[in-house]
């Protein structure tokens, strides 16, 4: 399968490095708004062709699947063009900046019978499959999930994470992990959402605190921040024990099982390359099997994650420019 990359930034470098080890896929094309940058990336990772605009890559008949790694403010427009051109698509998290845009893309994927996969990489990792197994068998009835995710980014100037025009802030960039992973582990969607947030001088959320209540009675609580260095740990608490995912929990590199407050098992999950390989192979599995997404991160999951993000944004007053919120 011939892959193209739109947006050759730091995240795309990890994608390209993982794709090198795939037996089924190859990096064929790279597109940037700067042709020199695209060419340098193509040379580094062995792509056949480079483009100085995104539309040319989308229109290349040799491209089978596209990975979009632009800021999420620009996901919707180019994802729609990809699907309309009948390209399979791996789209960085979050898929879009609101639920209406995600629903539109899902409808396009169904219309064109193309894979549309949200690249929430944690969902595809063996670590979280093990956590689900422990939750079902080893810690008793689950009571709540807690997590922190954050880094002291707010001092950065002229950076996407501090720019409202690029849908910046802690919530969409970092908090999405806590929401999506909790939703995956519990296999249900929140029925009640409570949020508090601090907007900084750039008018993006610096610190956001959220309580999610689920129909089963379980609660997920998280803090996401671009103003502080966090512990970056997720813990699933049950009546007879708990599970801890330490060391940047979304990387899925280790899980620990505690029973009666005693550590009884630690499992390391070293990635064969860098962790991107799981979602890459998932997309190619979907193409081969004729499905439009992986059941571990299905379209309804993506829509409901975005609905949760929409409600949190409403409660904390986080707004983005109309031009990146629209369906045009």
TrEMBL record:
Residues 128-243 form the GFO/IDH/MocA-like oxidoreductase domain. It comes from Aliiglaciecola litoralis. It comes from the Bacteria. Pfam families: GFO_IDH_MocA, GFO_IDH_MocA_C3. Residues 1-118 form the Gfo/Idh/MocA-like oxidoreductase N-terminal domain. Belongs to the Gfo/Idh/MocA family. Keywords: Oxidoreductase, Signal. InterPro entries: Gfo/Idh/MocA-like_OxRdtase_N, Gfo/Idh/MocA_domain, GFO_IDH_MocA-like_dom, NAD(P)-bd_dom_sf. This is Gfo/Idh/MocA family oxidoreductase.
